[in-house]
Specification:
single chain, seven-stranded antiparallel beta sheet, Jelly Rolls, 49% strand, 1 helix, 289 residues, mainly beta, globular
Length: 289
């Protein structure tokens, strides 16, 4: 049984950080529809003033942030002393766990600077695990080409290729797919997993619905996901195992109860938010300038 469309969302312009203009695909209003995913942003512009103020120092707890750059560069620094630059085609997979404070500052870029950030919720039993930071270079991401499709495997496994991000807290598959015109792509997610697609460019039939750029398609339960390109089409296809747990969301911190949120913000005020000695500084593939 092919998966039917459950909902279609059009990304909406919003301001975040110190004044970064971006497209919010989904967020708090859509919880728990996308469980285990909390938020998905498409940022990018060819006007530096739209992004140059960036995302200065801010905390996270209870989630993972996944940043994927299509073009441009973002400088990263955090409370574990990690620092580096996420460049075109690179991925940063950051597990905030018990708490991290970081900043993400886009650098001025000639042309269209664009990328994506996905928030993955952590289960209650893993909310307070040690923070972990992993930087993946573009050349570490496996790519396969077959039947008019080019598939980059960022996380999970497709065909015989396995993504470079291993040992995930929540099982996630993350694919970047380009289809030549009039080609069909089929994907069989794991049983019960939530699946959504985000159209970056071009038009195509997601199930039987013609979808244009900057639209997100959430698929219903079923087996095979079928997508057919009308013209050349590029989209992200992301799936994950739902947590089915209560959510207490306070800005950059996502816990299970209001009490846990209050503790987190109290610790921020008292300077005890960062649990020293409870972190993993660097993982394989970490880039550093």
């Amino acid at each position: 049984m092919a998966r039917k469309i459950k909902r279609i969302l059009k990304s909406k312009t919003t301001l975040e950080g110190a004044g970064v203009k971006l497209k919010r695909v989904f967020g708090a209003r859509e919880v728990p529809m996308f469980d285990p995913f909390l938020l998905f942003d498409h940022f990018g512009s060819d006007i530096p003033d739209d992004y140059i103020k960036g995302f200065p120092w801010h905390p996270h707890r209870g989630i993972e942030t996944v940043t994927y750059m299509l073009s441009g560069e973002v400088e990263h620094g955090d409370s574990m002393d990690n620092k580096g630059v996420i460049k075109s085609g690179d991925v940063q997979w950051m597990t905030a766990g018990s708490g991290i404070i970081h900043q993400e500052m886009p650098k001025r870029y000639s042309g269209l600077m664009q990328g994506f950030q996905l928030w993955v919720n952590l289960p209650a039993a893993k909310k307070m695990i040690p923070p972990r930071y992993r930087g993946i270079l573009e050349e570490q991401i496996p790519t396969l080409e077959k039947e008019g499709a080019k598939i980059k495997v960022i996380a999970g496994k497709f065909d015989h290729k396995e993504g470079p991000v291993q040992d995930l807290v929540v099982d996630v598959e993350y694919l970047d797919i380009t289809l030549e015109a009039k080609n069909t792509f089929e994907y069989t997610p794991k049983k019960g997993y939530k699946v959504f697609a985000y159209n970056i460019e071009g038009t195509g039939y997601f199930d039987d619905e013609l979808i244009g750029p900057q639209h997100c398609v959430l698929f219903d339960n079923g087996n095979v996901v079928k997508i057919k390109s009308h013209d050349k089409l590029r989209f992200l296809l992301i799936s994950g195992s739902p947590l089915n747990e209560p959510i207490a969301w306070g800005g950059p911190i996502v816990m299970n109860t209001r009490e846990e949120l209050e503790i987190a913000f109290q610790e921020l005020d008292e300077g005890t938010f960062i649990k020293r000695g409870n972190s993993v500084k660097v993982a394989r593939g970490f880039y550093q300038d």
